Amino acid sequence: MDHSALSSTDTGAGSAAAVKETARRHLGEAGAAGLSLEAVARAAGLAQAEVEAAFPHRDDLLTALVVDAYDASGAAMEQADRAAAQAGASAGARLLAAARALRHWAFEQPAEFALIYGSPVPGYEAPQDTVGPASRTPAVLAGIVRSALEAGELTPPRRPVPGPPLLLPAAAELFGGVPGEPFPDLIERGIVLWSNLIGLLVFQVFSRTHDSVRDEAAFFDYAIAVAAESIGLVVPLEDPAGEAPAG
Questions:
Q1: How far, in Å, CA of 244 to CA of 247, rounded?
Q2: Dihedral (Cα; 108, 112, 114, 120), 10-degree rounding
Q3: Whole-number Cα distances in Å, 84 to 8, 226, 244
Q4: DSSP string of 166-213, one letter each residue
Q5: 35 phi, psi to nearest 5 deg
Q6: Among residues 84, 19, 96, which one has the least CA distance to residue 56?
Q7: CA–CA dist 9, 53 (Å, integer)
Q8: How confident is the model over 117-174, as pLDDT tens digits?
Q9: Domain annotation covers residue 242
Q10: Could you tell me the CATH number of the domain that includes residue 123?
Q11: SS3 at position 88
């Protein structure tokens, strides 16, 4: 399926853009599993044939929404990281800025966050079209970690991952190759950091921590700092006086 061709129809009431906007609202009400072309057409006040002209099948529409969600969340992280880097921030501060940007997007768009990071949609299998957009988030993290490595901002691990490398070639390629000693397992550790970030957001967006911590935003920052320690990166947090450490 050529997703870009589907999305290029952007004129008229039944345009792809209008259909997707209605579908996003529907996601918040019925969830991805309840999405159907019939329901979207009804909510948009369109004939089903108009919706099908843009998205012939439900899975086409789901793919468009998935791609948009990955692109929007990835762009938020990229912009935050770029701004932090241009301001001369350390790699740890860049990581925190990018993670906060993803958190802000997730709370602003909880239905879309659930679409890409929640339970799989029954009967839907994401096509190759989604791989590039989905890679934007780990690419931001990989870029920050690579910068930290090159700038000498990482502390060597106290406990290297034992055994042979656990990576698939694509993961090493995304990072730019497997680092040498004392960081040969840095990419594996980066994947742990990535999974910690997404898991933490799942907990917070789906209200798994609201009855456990008194300040979820502060806890998020703390958790990112703790997770970053696993790759030897220091994330600057505010001190008790409320002032951010230098660097």
A1: 9
A2: -170
A3: 34, 20, 14
A4: ---HHHHHHHTS---TT-TTHHHHHHHHHHHHHHHHHHHHTTSSTTT-
A5: -75, 135
A6: 19
A7: 9
A8: 998 998 999 999 999 999 999 999 999 999 999 999 999 988 877 777 788 888 888 8
A9: no
A10: 1.10.357.10
A11: coil
| 22 and 72 part of one domain | no
**Positive or negative: CA dihedral 56, 59, 62, 67:** negative
On whether both 48 and 72 belong to a single domain, the answer is no
Other CB atoms within a 10 A radius of the CB of residue 19 amount to 27
Q: For residue 163, what is the DSSP state? A: S
Query: How many structural domains does the chain have?
Result: 2
In the chain, the amino acid numbered 166 is L
The token pair at 193 is 């950091």
95 and 170: one domain? Answer: yes
pLDDT tens sequence across 190-225: 999 999 999 999 999 998 787 888 999 999 999 999
